[in-house]
Specification:
Helix content is 78%, strand content 0%. The protein is mostly helical.
């Protein structure tokens, strides 16, 4: 049996490129969620006041003020635990999709749009904020695709040796 090392090298380089891209996506989501949660917890009273002004979630402001940053921290941690990473990527996508839909809804139907994001994110205009969220939502889709592609290739490689 003759081994084609060029094919092996190309496949290995594809794997490394995909793994590197996935690692970057995981780190970006981890940084985003930890930063956002820390900003909300550090200025908790302002965060509660801002989400309390939202026309959709006023009645749930105190509950949401703990739940959202807690969820962001949980997702950020899960992103770095290998067996939870796929779940965390789906959760990252879902959370960013919900944030994006919420902003789009408020911009379309509400006369008042409160910003409950913390830190640097609160300084963005609404169009920039929407584009930022859409970008991270798409990164979530790409991360899920890369994760599944990498793990499918790993399973196929193991199966081919048996």
């Amino acid at each position: 049996m003759r081994i084609n090392y060029n094919t092996i090298n190309i496949a290995f380089m594809k794997y490394l490129t995909r793994q590197f891209a996935l690692d970057i996506i995981v780190m970006l989501f981890g940084l985003l969620f930890v930063y956002a949660a820390a900003s909300k917890f550090l200025d908790y009273d302002l965060f509660v006041a801002q989400i309390g002004k939202s026309p959709l979630i006023t009645n749930y402001a105190s509950w949401i003020a703990w739940f959202i940053p807690g969820l962001e921290v949980a997702i950020a941690l899960a992103l770095f635990i290998p067996r939870l990473q796929l779940w965390a990527l789906y959760a990252s996508f879902g959370l960013m999709f919900m944030f994006t839909a919420y902003i789009a809804f408020l911009l379309t139907f509400s006369p008042y749009v409160p910003c409950s994001c913390g830190g640097v994110l609160s300084g963005m205009g609404w169009t920039a904020h929407l584009i930022f969220n859409i970008g991270f939502t798409l990164l979530g889709v790409l991360g899920i695709y890369l994760y599944n592609t990498i793990h499918k290739a790993n399973h196929e490689a193991v199966a081919s040796y048996n």
